[in-house]
Amino acid sequence: MLSGLLIVLLPLVVGYLIRVRSHHLQQLINRAVSGSVYLILLFMGISLAGLENLASQLSRLGGNALLLFSITTVFNLGALWWLSRRVALKAGNSPVVKNAPTSKLAAMQGSLLLLAVVAGGVITGLLLGPFLGEALFTTADLMAEWVLYALLVLIGCQLRNSGMPLKQILLNRLGLAIAVTLAVSSLLAGLAAAPLLSLSWNEGLAMASGFGWYSLSAILIGDQLGPLMGGVAFFNDLTRELLAFILIPLVIHRHTALAIGYGGATSMDFTLPVIQQHGGVACVPIAVVSGFILSLLSPPLILFFLSLSA
């Protein structure tokens, strides 16, 4: 039962064991991760184009993604609001972090670019499908699987060389509390959403374990449950990030923990500029720790819950 988990988790562990000291090599790894994500999402789009009754399937995808997103958001906001009332954490008006990007628009454009890649894959599949037939979709699935293994090695390497010592993570109680609150509330939302999405309990938990890491959740879930559910996971987590860009400036001074936590895994990268711009320097280490913990938890949780399928 756990063989599938081990096969996919092994590359992540192998990558985590690799220590990279060269800054130039780390940059190359970061670029390779981005390129791999785009490539896999392109393949996912091609696979979506191979579904029968594509229009109705895409309508179902959008409805399921909206349902999962709505339930997850209610659970997340409720839990993070409760936490924000119980922790002594207030945003300040500190200056911008040195060398940190501050453009929300630039970050949102990056998210929308991934969406465009999936759409491009669907268009490619529709154009080439009549000529290449089923071989196109079979090849796309196979290529996506092999690129996924390479991506997991690279992601493991990224996490190991992120410059975030374990001691620093464990000592930051606020970041840890925010990450645990977001993770637990997301998993409860996954359990609540599972029967509404016609999923088993473990598949619902897997769908909720992306914690905002839309590229990875779409890839891992799509590999196990098919491109349709991979698309649901992608849009669910992508919409979280887009809402976070709007929510953070509005609530960070009244409910700081909620603003930092709602972005999930993205609080250490994509939504970090918005957090530091509106919340100040003091919020940055908390956001980074919270995002890092969720990024570390997401892949093994998704793979573990999917491995429980019969």
TrEMBL record:
TM annotation in the entry: 6-22, 29-51, 63-84, 105-129, 135-155, 176-199, 211-235, 242-264, 284-306
Keyword Hydrolase applies: no
Pfam families in the cross-refs: Lys_export
Keywords: Membrane, Transmembrane, Transmembrane helix
Protein name stated in the entry: Lysine exporter LysO family protein
Organism encoding this protein: Halomonas colorata
Lineage: Bacteria, Pseudomonadati, Pseudomonadota, Gammaproteobacteria, Oceanospirillales
